[in-house]
Write the structure tokens for this entry.
Amino acid sequence: MKIAFASGKGGTGKSTIARTFANYIAKDKHVSLIDADVEEPNQLLFFKASTTEASKPVSLPIPVIDNDICSKCGACVKFCNYNALSLNKKGVTVFPELCHACGGCSMVCPINCISETPHEIGETTLAHNKNISLIQGKLAIGSSHATPLIEELLKRAPQNKTTIIDSPPGSACSLMAVANAVDAIVLVAEPTPFGLANLETVVDVCEELELLFGVVINRCNMGNTCVLDFCQKHDIEILAEIPWYYDVASSCQPISQLESHFNTQNNPMQKLAEAVSKWEAEC
Amino acid sequence: MKIAISCKGPSIDDSFDSHFGRASYFQIFEDNKWHSFDNRENANAAQGAGISTAQSIIDMGVDVIITGSLGPKASRVIADSDIQVFLSDLPSIKENLLQFAPKLGLSITPETMEAKK
Ligand code: SF4
Ligand code: SF4
């Protein structure tokens, strides 16, 4: 089963919870953890890898114009919806950082003087530690092509029975790229009015896409009851509640520190795992 | 000689816009006459506003641009043309024309500019 951890904004604890949950599952089976927060991936920072494979580039096919034969008709510039081409008396200039690799310009060129070359938009890195395989996507500096990078990252991820995806924050295109590839989404939210406003945006996305989803309230001993009330009113399942701890917030190893607060009587990850098993049965 | 000045509105009395690609209008001065160019479609582009604005300016056959700043992409488009660029921070369109006219060998006074509006 593929489960994404998402949130309407950054800093809700989505990555921490995704990794903590991966650790919990990895106690008795293999799990793939995908860091799809490609603009700022950080799972590798907290991952003691026993092996790390060489990073592999991800590229898009970008047009190359043969300006020696280009007739300067401007058809390609007119066609491009992304303003990735410009024409002056020297010929056509391509702006690879704006090109969406749709291939349209080479189709409309009347004299076929447009070919394509790979343009690197980022890379993926695979690392292993015992039962966890972590794959991370990292967007190249200056590139804005998060969506195609995430799509390729998800293709390259090792196939395991359980795959946990640390989704990019927000409810825009990069979340869509993840949402299209998963069976269920865990929405991580903080119990504050701001947290609720951000949660509502991702709940809208999940409902629109008719996805299985539930909410984890992080830092549940702070703020107010607005997120709880919202979930009750909209019949959204609260999968787990995780308190805020001073020592976790101030730790350089927040995940092991957080885990040290859990015991057999009280483990939010166990509750989450039970909810996921129920989803698995439904799927 | 065709001069394009980035502007916040359709009239030459609207204020100078220091942005190039995101300027809503350009005031075009040619043969002692003004007309305005509606740049809103380019300015509102999700991406590449500078490139598409520069493309429109080139397609119009402009010789001189007066604006506040030119981004790196728009600069690349303009660099391969013969267009001269002046960067300015004067608040009104007319002041800008008066300021740069001598450098372009044009003799323009506030009166001639008014009369041919
Ligand atoms: S491939 Fe598509 S997006 Fe890229 S330059 Fe050509 S038309 Fe524009
Ligand atoms: S469509 Fe082809 S020939 Fe026309 S301007 Fe573009 S590259 Fe040149």
In short: Residues 101 and 266 of chain A are 50 Å apart (CA to CA). Residues 2-48+129-282 of chain A form a domain with the Rossmann fold fold (CATH 3.40.50.300).
